[in-house]
Amino acid sequence: MDTKALREVAAAAIISDGRLLLAQRVGPPELAGMWELPGGKIEPGETPAQGLRRELREELGVDTVIGGRIGVDVPLPDGMVLRAYRVSLRDGTPTALEHSAVRWVAAPELAAADLVPNDRAWLADLVATLNAG
Ligand code: 523
């Protein structure tokens, strides 16, 4: 039996001025061109917050503050789990260093966006958070 903890992929709901940051994936082919909450795999020895801050520095060139969870756990293949966190910007302007583009969306544009399938699980929670803000 596999006794290892679930490997986590953490994703960032970066919210600023009532808008959410979306990033456009470059791959794999079935996800290329679709929009996601940026993030990535947490490495062994990292807390989710440490790993997500590292990913956001690498992918967007920003310094961030990682907050609480938003939305459900999304099971991924290979025993991984995808989790979203509320994130605020501390320093820098998000830049697409590893994505093809980034954009800020308010609730109506988010609802209409071509999101990667996994991230659609968080849509209602994200829209509610934006509308509350
Ligand atoms: N997702 C996903 N949504 C989402 C993220 C950040 C990731 O569905 N918002 C999925 C896509 C992959 C897996 O989680 O199946 C890992 O994400 P990836 O490829 O962005 O993680 P990285 O950047 O750590 O991956 P490698 O550098 O390729 O190891």
- What separation lies between the terminal Cα atoms? 45 Å
Shape field: globular
Tally of domains: 1
Indicate the mean pLDDT: 96
The main β sheet shows up as: 7 strands, mixed
| Helix fraction bin | 10-25%
Q: What is the alpha-carbon Rg in Å? A: 14 Å
The count of helical stretches stands at 3
Q: Work out the number of β strands.
A: 7
Catalytic activity: 8-oxo-dGTP + H2O = 8-oxo-dGMP + diphosphate + H(+)
EC number: 3.6.1.55
Domain Nudix hydrolase: 5-128
Keywords: DNA damage, DNA repair, DNA replication, Hydrolase, Magnesium, Metal-binding, Mutator protein
What labels describe this entry?
133 residues, alpha+beta, Nucleoside Triphosphate Pyrophosphohydrolase, 22% helix, binds 2'-deoxy-5-methylcytidine 5'-(tetrahydrogen triphosphate), hydrolase, DNA damage, DNA replication, mutator protein, NUDIX_hydrolase_dom
Summarize the SSE layout with pairings.
Blueprint: E1 7-16, E2 19-24, E3 35-36, E4 39-41, H1 48-60, E5 63-76, E6 80-91, E7 101-105, H2 107-112, H3 123-132
The chain binds 2'-deoxy-5-methylcytidine 5'-(tetrahydrogen triphosphate).
Textual characterization of the structure:
The chain is of the alpha+beta class and 133 residues long. The chain has one domain: Nucleoside Triphosphate Pyrophosphohydrolase, CATH 3.90.79.10. Helix content is 22%, strand content 39%. The protein is built from three helices and seven strands. Strands 1, 2, 3, 4, 5, 6 and 7 form a seven-stranded mixed beta sheet that branches. β1 and β2 form a beta hairpin. The longest helix is centred in the middle third of the chain and has 13 residues. It is globular and about 40 Å long. The termini are far apart. 29% of the residues are buried. The mean pLDDT is 96. Bound molecules: 2'-deoxy-5-methylcytidine 5'-(tetrahydrogen triphosphate).
